[in-house]
Amino acid sequence: MIPPENELPAAPTLSAVAERAGVSAITVSRVLRLPDMVAPQTRARVEAAMRELGYVPNQLAGALAGARTKSVGVLVPTIANSIFADTVQGLSDELEPLGYAVILAQSRYDAAREDHMLAALLSRRPEAIIMVGSPATADGARLLRRAGIPVIETWELPPEPIDAVAGFDNYAAGAAVATHLLAQGRQSFAFIGGDDPRATRRWNGFNDTLLGAGQLAARRLVLARNASGSVAALAELPGVDAVFAANDAHAIGFMSGLRQAGLLREGPAAAQPVAVVGLGDLEMGRLIAPSLSTIRVHGDAIGRTAARLMLTREGPRRIDLGFELVLRDSG
Q1: Is 166 helix (H, G, I), strand (E, B) or coil?
Q2: Is the pLDDT of residue 61 over 70?
Q3: All domains of the chain in start order, with CATH
Q4: Are 132 and 76 in contact (CB under 8 A)?
Protein backbone atom coordinates (compact mmCIF):
# COMPACT_ATOMS: atom_id res chain seq x y z
CA MET A 1 0.00 0.00 0.00
CA ILE A 2 1.02 3.61 -0.51
CA PRO A 3 2.64 4.83 2.73
CA PRO A 4 0.53 7.08 4.98
CA GLU A 5 0.92 10.79 4.32
CA ASN A 6 2.28 11.40 7.80
CA GLU A 7 5.36 9.30 6.94
CA LEU A 8 6.34 11.59 4.06
CA PRO A 9 7.28 15.29 3.95
CA ALA A 10 4.43 17.68 3.21
CA ALA A 11 4.43 19.28 -0.23
CA PRO A 12 5.04 23.06 -0.15
CA THR A 13 1.95 25.23 -0.52
CA LEU A 14 1.14 28.33 -2.55
CA SER A 15 0.99 30.31 0.70
CA ALA A 16 4.51 29.22 1.57
CA VAL A 17 5.72 30.47 -1.82
CA ALA A 18 3.99 33.82 -1.23
CA GLU A 19 5.64 34.17 2.17
CA ARG A 20 9.08 33.29 0.81
CA ALA A 21 8.74 35.76 -2.09
CA GLY A 22 7.24 38.52 0.07
CA VAL A 23 4.10 38.83 -2.04
CA SER A 24 0.42 37.94 -1.68
CA ALA A 25 -1.03 34.56 -2.56
CA ILE A 26 -3.00 36.30 -5.31
CA THR A 27 0.26 37.47 -6.90
CA VAL A 28 1.64 33.93 -6.87
CA SER A 29 -1.58 32.72 -8.48
CA ARG A 30 -1.23 35.38 -11.19
CA VAL A 31 2.35 34.28 -11.90
CA LEU A 32 1.03 30.78 -12.47
CA ARG A 33 -2.02 31.69 -14.54
CA LEU A 34 -1.30 35.11 -16.11
CA PRO A 35 2.47 35.69 -15.88
CA ASP A 36 2.43 38.60 -18.39
CA MET A 37 0.33 40.62 -15.93
CA VAL A 38 3.05 40.49 -13.26
CA ALA A 39 6.07 42.79 -13.23
CA PRO A 40 9.21 40.90 -14.39
CA GLN A 41 11.11 41.49 -11.14
CA THR A 42 8.19 40.26 -9.05
CA ARG A 43 7.68 37.28 -11.32
CA ALA A 44 11.36 36.37 -11.06
CA ARG A 45 11.16 36.57 -7.24
CA VAL A 46 8.13 34.28 -7.15
CA GLU A 47 9.70 31.79 -9.57
CA ALA A 48 12.88 31.71 -7.47
CA ALA A 49 10.79 31.00 -4.36
CA MET A 50 9.03 28.14 -6.15
CA ARG A 51 12.36 26.61 -7.13
CA GLU A 52 13.79 26.99 -3.62
CA LEU A 53 10.74 25.37 -2.02
CA GLY A 54 10.25 22.73 -4.69
CA TYR A 55 6.72 23.97 -5.37
CA VAL A 56 4.77 22.80 -8.43
CA PRO A 57 1.25 23.99 -9.28
CA ASN A 58 -1.57 21.52 -8.78
CA GLN A 59 -3.25 20.78 -12.10
CA LEU A 60 -5.94 18.87 -10.21
CA ALA A 61 -6.89 21.69 -7.85
CA GLY A 62 -10.54 21.33 -8.79
CA ALA A 63 -10.68 17.74 -7.64
CA LEU A 64 -11.96 16.68 -4.23
CA ALA A 65 -9.44 17.25 -1.46
CA GLY A 66 -7.54 14.08 -0.69
CA ALA A 67 -8.74 12.33 -3.85
CA ARG A 68 -6.35 9.69 -5.16
CA THR A 69 -5.19 9.95 -8.74
CA LYS A 70 -4.13 6.27 -9.05
CA SER A 71 -1.34 7.45 -11.36
CA VAL A 72 2.43 7.01 -11.23
CA GLY A 73 4.87 9.33 -13.00
CA VAL A 74 7.72 7.50 -14.75
CA LEU A 75 10.70 9.41 -16.15
CA VAL A 76 13.14 7.69 -18.52
CA PRO A 77 16.01 9.18 -20.55
CA THR A 78 14.52 8.05 -23.87
CA ILE A 79 12.11 5.62 -25.47
CA ALA A 80 14.20 5.59 -28.67
CA ASN A 81 16.53 3.04 -27.06
CA SER A 82 14.77 -0.15 -25.98
CA ILE A 83 17.26 -0.68 -23.13
CA PHE A 84 14.74 0.78 -20.65
CA ALA A 85 11.67 -1.00 -22.05
CA ASP A 86 11.96 -4.01 -19.72
CA THR A 87 11.98 -1.73 -16.67
CA VAL A 88 8.84 0.12 -17.77
CA GLN A 89 7.17 -3.18 -18.62
CA GLY A 90 8.07 -4.71 -15.26
CA LEU A 91 6.68 -1.85 -13.20
CA SER A 92 3.57 -1.66 -15.42
CA ASP A 93 2.95 -5.39 -14.91
CA GLU A 94 3.02 -4.85 -11.15
CA LEU A 95 0.98 -1.63 -11.00
CA GLU A 96 -1.67 -1.86 -13.71
CA PRO A 97 -3.49 -4.86 -12.16
CA LEU A 98 -3.84 -2.69 -9.02
CA GLY A 99 -5.57 0.03 -11.03
CA TYR A 100 -2.63 2.43 -11.46
CA ALA A 101 -2.03 4.33 -14.68
CA VAL A 102 1.58 4.92 -15.72
CA ILE A 103 2.37 8.41 -17.08
CA LEU A 104 5.60 8.23 -19.09
CA ALA A 105 7.93 11.16 -19.77
CA GLN A 106 11.40 11.49 -21.35
CA SER A 107 14.34 13.62 -20.23
CA ARG A 108 16.35 12.98 -23.43
CA TYR A 109 19.52 13.14 -21.34
CA ASP A 110 18.99 16.88 -20.84
CA ALA A 111 19.16 18.19 -17.27
CA ALA A 112 16.94 21.23 -17.86
CA ARG A 113 14.36 19.13 -19.67
CA GLU A 114 14.48 16.59 -16.82
CA ASP A 115 13.59 19.30 -14.30
CA HIS A 116 10.77 20.50 -16.55
CA MET A 117 9.35 17.01 -16.98
CA LEU A 118 9.57 16.27 -13.25
CA ALA A 119 7.57 19.44 -12.56
CA ALA A 120 5.07 18.48 -15.27
CA LEU A 121 4.62 15.00 -13.79
CA LEU A 122 4.29 16.32 -10.24
CA SER A 123 1.70 18.88 -11.35
CA ARG A 124 -0.60 15.93 -12.18
CA ARG A 125 -0.32 14.85 -8.53
CA PRO A 126 0.85 11.27 -9.11
CA GLU A 127 1.01 8.95 -6.14
CA ALA A 128 4.71 8.28 -6.80
CA ILE A 129 7.60 9.14 -9.12
CA ILE A 130 9.79 6.37 -10.53
CA MET A 131 12.78 7.49 -12.56
CA VAL A 132 15.76 5.99 -14.34
CA GLY A 133 18.81 7.35 -12.56
CA SER A 134 18.98 10.10 -9.97
CA PRO A 135 18.03 13.78 -10.39
CA ALA A 136 20.56 15.60 -12.55
CA THR A 137 20.24 18.93 -10.71
CA ALA A 138 19.80 20.24 -7.18
CA ASP A 139 16.48 21.81 -8.25
CA GLY A 140 15.20 18.43 -9.45
CA ALA A 141 16.26 16.73 -6.23
CA ARG A 142 14.58 19.47 -4.21
CA LEU A 143 11.32 19.03 -6.15
CA LEU A 144 11.30 15.33 -5.40
CA ARG A 145 12.30 15.60 -1.73
CA ARG A 146 9.47 18.04 -1.07
CA ALA A 147 6.82 16.33 -3.19
CA GLY A 148 5.47 14.34 -0.25
CA ILE A 149 5.18 11.09 -2.27
CA PRO A 150 7.33 7.98 -2.74
CA VAL A 151 10.28 8.53 -5.08
CA ILE A 152 12.08 5.51 -6.53
CA GLU A 153 15.41 5.88 -8.35
CA THR A 154 16.41 3.01 -10.65
CA TRP A 155 19.37 1.82 -12.75
CA GLU A 156 21.56 3.41 -10.13
CA LEU A 157 22.73 2.85 -6.55
CA PRO A 158 23.21 6.29 -4.95
CA PRO A 159 24.51 5.98 -1.37
CA GLU A 160 21.74 8.28 -0.10
CA PRO A 161 18.64 7.95 -2.27
CA ILE A 162 15.87 10.50 -1.97
CA ASP A 163 13.53 7.75 -0.80
CA ALA A 164 14.32 4.33 -2.27
CA VAL A 165 16.41 2.82 -5.07
CA ALA A 166 16.44 -0.39 -7.12
CA GLY A 167 19.37 -0.81 -9.46
CA PHE A 168 22.92 -2.01 -9.94
CA ASP A 169 26.47 -0.73 -9.52
CA ASN A 170 27.49 0.98 -12.77
CA TYR A 171 31.06 1.45 -11.55
CA ALA A 172 31.38 -2.27 -10.80
CA ALA A 173 30.00 -3.09 -14.26
CA GLY A 174 32.77 -1.06 -15.90
CA ALA A 175 35.37 -2.69 -13.66
CA ALA A 176 34.11 -6.18 -14.59
CA VAL A 177 34.48 -5.45 -18.31
CA ALA A 178 38.02 -4.10 -17.84
CA THR A 179 39.02 -7.15 -15.80
CA HIS A 180 37.72 -9.47 -18.53
CA LEU A 181 39.49 -7.63 -21.36
CA LEU A 182 42.75 -7.54 -19.41
CA ALA A 183 42.51 -11.31 -18.94
CA GLN A 184 42.25 -11.63 -22.73
CA GLY A 185 45.59 -9.89 -23.08
CA ARG A 186 44.20 -6.77 -24.75
CA GLN A 187 46.57 -3.80 -24.78
CA SER A 188 44.82 -0.67 -26.07
CA PHE A 189 41.44 0.27 -24.64
CA ALA A 190 38.59 2.66 -25.39
CA PHE A 191 35.19 3.54 -23.99
CA ILE A 192 32.42 4.88 -26.24
CA GLY A 193 29.07 6.31 -25.20
CA GLY A 194 27.34 9.30 -23.72
CA ASP A 195 28.44 11.48 -20.83
CA ASP A 196 25.34 11.05 -18.66
CA PRO A 197 26.00 10.15 -14.99
CA ARG A 198 25.42 6.40 -15.39
CA ALA A 199 27.67 6.11 -18.45
CA THR A 200 30.30 8.18 -16.62
CA ARG A 201 30.28 5.79 -13.67
CA ARG A 202 30.78 2.86 -16.08
CA TRP A 203 33.70 4.74 -17.64
CA ASN A 204 35.22 5.44 -14.22
CA GLY A 205 35.04 1.79 -13.19
CA PHE A 206 36.50 0.70 -16.52
CA ASN A 207 39.37 3.20 -16.58
CA ASP A 208 40.24 2.97 -12.88
CA THR A 209 40.60 -0.80 -13.20
CA LEU A 210 42.92 -0.45 -16.20
CA LEU A 211 45.07 2.13 -14.40
CA GLY A 212 45.19 -0.10 -11.33
CA ALA A 213 46.55 -2.90 -13.52
CA GLY A 214 49.35 -0.67 -14.81
CA GLN A 215 47.77 0.06 -18.20
CA LEU A 216 47.62 3.43 -19.90
CA ALA A 217 44.35 5.31 -19.50
CA ALA A 218 41.65 4.22 -21.90
CA ARG A 219 40.52 6.63 -24.58
CA ARG A 220 37.01 7.96 -24.08
CA LEU A 221 34.89 8.90 -27.07
CA VAL A 222 31.75 10.82 -26.08
CA LEU A 223 29.04 10.32 -28.69
CA ALA A 224 26.31 12.79 -29.51
CA ARG A 225 22.85 11.93 -28.21
CA ASN A 226 21.21 9.11 -30.16
CA ALA A 227 24.41 8.53 -32.19
CA SER A 228 25.28 4.91 -32.86
CA GLY A 229 28.98 5.54 -33.35
CA SER A 230 30.05 3.36 -36.27
CA VAL A 231 32.57 4.32 -38.95
CA ALA A 232 33.15 7.80 -37.51
CA ALA A 233 33.90 6.37 -34.06
CA LEU A 234 36.28 3.80 -35.53
CA ALA A 235 38.23 6.51 -37.33
CA GLU A 236 38.85 8.29 -34.03
CA LEU A 237 40.22 5.20 -32.29
CA PRO A 238 43.11 3.88 -34.41
CA GLY A 239 45.07 1.03 -32.89
CA VAL A 240 42.48 0.16 -30.25
CA ASP A 241 42.00 -3.58 -29.68
CA ALA A 242 39.32 -3.51 -26.94
CA VAL A 243 36.19 -1.36 -26.65
CA PHE A 244 33.59 -1.08 -23.90
CA ALA A 245 30.42 0.62 -25.13
CA ALA A 246 28.12 2.32 -22.64
CA ASN A 247 25.18 0.36 -24.06
CA ASP A 248 24.46 -2.31 -26.66
CA ALA A 249 23.15 0.19 -29.22
CA HIS A 250 26.52 1.94 -29.25
CA ALA A 251 28.34 -1.41 -29.36
CA ILE A 252 26.30 -2.66 -32.32
CA GLY A 253 26.87 0.60 -34.19
CA PHE A 254 30.62 0.37 -33.56
CA MET A 255 30.64 -3.23 -34.76
CA SER A 256 29.10 -2.14 -38.05
CA GLY A 257 32.11 0.14 -38.52
CA LEU A 258 34.47 -2.74 -37.70
CA ARG A 259 32.65 -4.91 -40.23
CA GLN A 260 33.06 -2.31 -42.97
CA ALA A 261 36.75 -1.98 -42.13
CA GLY A 262 37.29 -5.74 -42.27
CA LEU A 263 38.06 -5.92 -38.55
CA LEU A 264 35.24 -8.22 -37.55
CA ARG A 265 35.50 -11.97 -37.97
CA GLU A 266 33.40 -15.06 -37.52
CA GLY A 267 34.55 -17.26 -34.68
CA PRO A 268 35.45 -16.99 -30.99
CA ALA A 269 36.37 -13.83 -29.12
CA ALA A 270 40.09 -14.61 -29.19
CA ALA A 271 40.02 -14.34 -33.01
CA GLN A 272 38.64 -10.77 -33.00
CA PRO A 273 41.18 -8.05 -33.86
CA VAL A 274 39.04 -5.68 -31.77
CA ALA A 275 37.04 -6.99 -28.81
CA VAL A 276 33.70 -5.25 -28.16
CA VAL A 277 31.54 -5.44 -25.02
CA GLY A 278 28.23 -3.61 -24.56
CA LEU A 279 25.63 -3.25 -21.84
CA GLY A 280 21.94 -4.13 -21.83
CA ASP A 281 21.75 -7.53 -23.55
CA LEU A 282 19.47 -6.35 -26.36
CA GLU A 283 18.00 -9.07 -28.56
CA MET A 284 19.77 -7.66 -31.63
CA GLY A 285 23.11 -8.21 -29.93
CA ARG A 286 22.33 -11.89 -29.54
CA LEU A 287 21.33 -12.27 -33.20
CA ILE A 288 24.14 -10.46 -35.02
CA ALA A 289 27.33 -12.24 -36.07
CA PRO A 290 29.56 -12.30 -34.20
CA SER A 291 27.20 -12.19 -31.24
CA LEU A 292 27.76 -9.35 -28.77
CA SER A 293 29.36 -9.81 -25.36
CA THR A 294 27.53 -7.63 -22.88
CA ILE A 295 26.60 -6.74 -19.34
CA ARG A 296 23.13 -8.15 -18.70
CA VAL A 297 21.01 -5.86 -16.55
CA HIS A 298 17.86 -7.25 -14.97
CA GLY A 299 15.55 -4.52 -16.27
CA ASP A 300 12.28 -6.33 -15.60
CA ALA A 301 13.29 -7.08 -12.01
CA ILE A 302 14.32 -3.44 -11.54
CA GLY A 303 10.86 -2.30 -12.65
CA ARG A 304 9.00 -4.81 -10.49
CA THR A 305 11.15 -4.00 -7.46
CA ALA A 306 10.61 -0.27 -7.98
CA ALA A 307 6.85 -0.85 -8.01
CA ARG A 308 6.99 -2.80 -4.75
CA LEU A 309 9.16 -0.15 -3.11
CA MET A 310 6.53 2.39 -4.09
CA LEU A 311 3.70 0.36 -2.58
CA THR A 312 5.24 -0.33 0.82
CA ARG A 313 7.76 1.18 3.20
CA GLU A 314 8.65 -2.16 4.79
CA GLY A 315 12.08 -3.71 4.27
CA PRO A 316 15.28 -2.24 2.80
CA ARG A 317 15.02 0.91 0.68
CA ARG A 318 18.24 0.37 -1.29
CA ILE A 319 18.21 -2.83 -3.35
CA ASP A 320 21.12 -3.98 -5.51
CA LEU A 321 19.81 -6.32 -8.24
CA GLY A 322 23.26 -6.89 -9.69
CA PHE A 323 24.35 -7.63 -13.26
CA GLU A 324 25.92 -10.44 -15.26
CA LEU A 325 28.86 -10.38 -17.68
CA VAL A 326 27.65 -12.44 -20.66
CA LEU A 327 30.52 -13.54 -22.91
CA ARG A 328 29.87 -14.21 -26.58
CA ASP A 329 31.93 -14.01 -29.78
CA SER A 330 32.56 -10.26 -30.00
CA GLY A 331 35.02 -10.13 -27.13
Answers
A1: strand
A2: no
A3: 1-55 (1.10.260.40), 66-167+300-321 (3.40.50.2300), 170-297 (3.40.50.2300)
A4: yes
